[in-house]
Amino acid sequence: MSSPPHGVLPWVVRRTRLPLLLSRRCVDCRAESATTGEGRFRVNANGKLLDVWLLARCVSCGRTSKLTVHERAPARSFDPSQLDGYRGNDPELVASTLLDPLLARRNHVTLDWTGAWRLDTPPAWPDEAWPVQVEVVFQDPVPVRPDRLIAQGLGLSRNAALRRITCDIPLRRPVSTGFTFTVMAGTSGDAAATSSATPTTARAPPASAAEPAAAARSRRRQARHDPGPPPARRAHLRDRRRVTLWPAPSTNPDRIPASSPSGPAARAGAVAAPERIFRAFQATNAYCFSRHS
Predict the structure, then answer these.
(1) Is residue 102 part of a domain?
(2) Last residue of a domain, one of 81, 112, 143
(3) Which residue, 27, 84, 94, 105, is CA-closest to 54?
(4) What is the DSSP letter of 100?
(5) Same structural domain, 150 and 105
(6) 136 CB contacts (<8 Å, ≥6 apart)?
(7) Mean pLDDT, to the nearest integer, of 111-125?
(8) Number of domains within the chain
(9) Given this model, what pLDDT does residue 178 score?
(10) Which listed residue, 20, 45, 248, 273, has the most CB atoms within 10 A of its CB?
(11) What is the mean pLDDT of residues 170-185?
């Protein structure tokens, strides 16, 4: 049975800037990210009806687009202070409007909180006995996974942090509301890393365990690059493909037999062939001339 926590530490998740807008494709450069910058509203009156938009700017080309906040709303339905905030671009009203889930659903956008928040933790852990309870408070609805948040706050890896904590909520599902968890006592190395809130470095395996693994990796690498001699059957087929069926022609006439296709008789016949053709042509012309004379 575990002992009750001896202390409660506050962790605060704060917003550092307004989040970016995603899934809103620009009509000029087709980029999917936009920012509201400092935050500006545009109010348009059509008789007794008002239209209110929140202006957004493309992060790539700077084109301005509009996010619908109110559409054809009666002017008397607005509170005077709220209407003054729209006209004066009140920063708090800009933040509350942008973080309103209704705005995201109406304009089909999502918020990108990457680099837009920070975690404030106590400078040092108390020296009192373990376990210690930690209360996480969200000043803004920042969706973050509890396991990553806890690992960042403790300065440990996620696996090491999960071994030391107990929590009543799912740790791998993003949350944007406060929760509490309990940190249990760990090893001396984990305790030192938790007190300094700095990430720990992975320790190298012992030499006795590292050498067989390295040797196995070397053998696998050598097998991939040098598969070794081919099987006997493949070598036999390769040797058969190298066999030439006809000997290479020789340029020495003394070594060429008379019966060879390139011997002296063949060469004499090749030389006499044009003369026979010329004599046949003369005989044909003489015959034709005698017929017509």
Answers:
(1) yes
(2) 112
(3) 94
(4) -
(5) no
(6) 11, 12, 13, 146, 149, 178, 179, 180, 181
(7) 86
(8) 2
(9) 92
(10) 20
(11) 90
